Amino acid sequence: MNVGLWMPGRGTYEKSFGVADQQTGAPMKADLATRIGSVTKTFTVTGVLQLVDQGKVGLDDPISRYVSGVPGGDAVTLRQLAEMRSGLFDYTTDQRWLAALRADPHRTYTPRRLLDVAFRHPPNFNPGAKWQYSNTNTVLLGMLVEKVSGRPLGDYLRDHVFTPLKLGDTSLPSDSAMPEPHAHGYTDFTPKGTVADATGWNPSWAWAAGGIVSDLDDMHAWAPALADGRLLSAKTQAERLRTLPIGVVPGASYGLGILDFNGWLGHNGELPGYETITAQLPAERATMVVSVNSDVDHEGKNLSGLIGNAVTSVVTPDHLRPAPVAAPPK
Fold this sequence. Notes:
The chain has about 325 residues and is of the alpha+beta class. About 30% of the residues lie in helices and about 15% in strands. An eight-stranded antiparallel β-sheet has the order 2-1-14-13-12-11-10-9, with helices on both faces. The protein has a two-stranded antiparallel sheet with strand order 3-4. Strands 5-8 form a two-stranded antiparallel sheet. A hairpin with a 4-residue loop joins strand 10 and strand 11. It is globular and about 50 Å long. The relative contact order is 0.18.
């Protein structure tokens, strides 16, 4: 794993732990690429908000204007999708689909196929009624970016987000290949719960919601850019940061593709083989990045979350990231 903490006036901490490849014993290093999981959502929603600034879409537009076939899509707005309040079923909680993914993690999924899985379930609640995390929301927003921009999502993000911020080691691959050099990722998301190397597994099922690859330095650069909104207008960034309590974790609130944990702005990410935290604490201009090349829980708890809690309990006790609760069986 890699852990980075940058606090102006108080110092810098960067350290790598463990191995990047269990087969060769190669050590973990800060410049190795990893999959960042749902930190991807911060990039996809940034793309949407850029289109808002360009006047090409409105936050309160219905998603049905851009993507067909969404249940109740005339009443589901882009804002509700970005803030996780659409009520749409999360395809990654469909048990039949999860079993198929475990059995064949190399399968390619199209965004429309993911929506098919989601939409065979009715919405969980009326749009705007409450907060509930759903990867379906961000897949729809990725499709919107492609529809409005006329570009593949990965190309759009490269040209409008990665390149302007000089994030040269960040990409949304169109296949399962990992750029060199990279860290292998290990998971117990397997049919029998045994640990496997998930590095080459196909992340197409995560796409706009979780498919980006990056490294420690680029995440260090992204966290403050996300928090200060330098790629957006001040008005649109203010909309992004208008967070509402999520109701399940004390001190946690969610805005437009951004999570606020007691003042730490950013996002967590997890998919088979990898976990990530990328966050900025504007109150102290502090940046924290945690990258773990395994999603195997430690005593039933998310390892990156434990590290984030431990780090903040020492350096920013007034801005504590909560400790994770025990996870249900995978």
